Amino acid sequence: MLKDLEINGTYLFYIGVSYKKANVALREKFSIDDQTKRVIFSKARQAGMDTLLIISTCNRTEILGFAKSAEQLINLLCEHTQGSYKEFEKVGYVHKNRSAIQHIFKVGTGLDSQILGDFEIISQVKNSAIFSKKHQMLNPFMERLVNTVIRASKRVKNETDISTGATSVSFASVQYILKEVPQVSEKNILLFGTGKIGRNTCENLIKHTKNRHITLVNRTKCKADEVAGKFNLLVKEYADIQAEIAKTDVLIVATGAQNPTISKHLVHTTKPLLILDLSMPRNVSKDVLELPNVTLLHLDELSQITDTTLVKRELQIPLADQIITDVISEFEAWFDTRKFAPTIKALKTKLVKLRDSEIHDHKKKDADFNEDKVNQISDKIINKITAQVASHLRENNDSKASIELIQKVFQLQNI
Fold it and tell me: Are residues 159 and 258 part of one domain?
């Protein structure tokens, strides 16, 4: 059973910090970029770990992996970020075995998102798994688990209304603009950063504001060109960012930088300027608030925007929970089968060995012995026997005792 999950003396732990208890300042301390992931992987391998999934987004930083103790993963997190163990004790959380698996399903299906039903997270889970696999830190168990979470996410999205209505951090930012910026269709909007959130924000801007005065800036201009090409928008060089800020009414920052990219020294305008920072860590320095014409909001404040869409989504939680329960049960059945697969394989090897020994003896005594025919019949019998044993182990509550008995009766330990 998953609650008793143990592989080579290690257990599945899921540790992390999220928006639920950690404010943006604390989450920034624990954020992890790709280079830090590589360092953590290296340290983990030195400690004998072979699989880690690291999820670091604007709302959470989490590590899922097999370890001897949760402290191993907590130390990896604290030693390679700005966050301390003491801070983790205040705001962090730890899940083990089945609880860890339940948590990754909650995360991947949007039930643990800052805005309920925000499915952007599943792409981040998927990308984290791809990164781990690329660096040989994704064992078969974890790969199967992530693929199952992806499948559950699709089911929740397709079989419930929990994603009805475009509510996400990117959409919340557009909602705020629509409510707070008069004549928004005529305003100049500058979007700095064209990653996942930037692209989604761009799409929502065009769809809901009907604004065609949107300019894109990205450190890598070709990426901005790709996004702009879909919507026929203007793209400017990163070197022009200061001049573009001077012309804009709304600045949306969605970059992946580890340090602030926008400060008051880049703001040379006296007209009202609304800045929305959708980045983690924050990419807009607080010093912009020293300017009387600037209003600054971070994604935490934007995420608090609620409407009737979220109320409707909450009604879908029980149905989503049932889907998760069903999929976890399927995953548990797979894992139980995987646990006794070596015993089934050894049993089959033993039966084939006994069969081959008997055939060898009969061939000596009978010149007309039909070996091919006997092999065909005996293969079917062996497959039926092993299938029956596998079925028994799947349905038996104490499969460990049954495995030990089968190994003893057929003397499988030496195979």
Answer: no
Looking at residue 133, what is its pLDDT? 97
* Residue 310 neighbours by CB distance under 10 Å: 14
Closest CA to 68 of 6, 142, 123, 111: 6
Domain boundaries, position 119: 2-165
Cα-based distances in Å from 46 to 42, 65, 68, 69, 72: 6, 14, 14, 16, 12
Instruction: Please check whether residue 316 lies inside any domain of the structure.
Output: no
- Do 208 and 176 share a structural domain? yes
Which residues are identified as catalytic? 58
The stretches in the chain having pLDDT less than 70 are: 1, 3, 164-167, 304-309, 397-399, 413-415
Q: What is the pLDDT of residue 118?
A: 80
**pLDDT on residue 212:** 77
Question: Residue 59 and residue 279: Cα distance in Å, rounded?
Answer: 10
Contacts of 403 (CB under 8 A, 6+ apart): 340, 343, 393
Whether 130 and 189 map to the same domain: the answer is no
Omega into 281 within 30° of 0, i.e. cis? yes
Are residue 13 and residue 151 in the same domain, yes or no? yes
Q: What pLDDT score was predicted for residue 35?
A: 95
The strand pair at 11-18 and 60-67 is best described as antiparallel
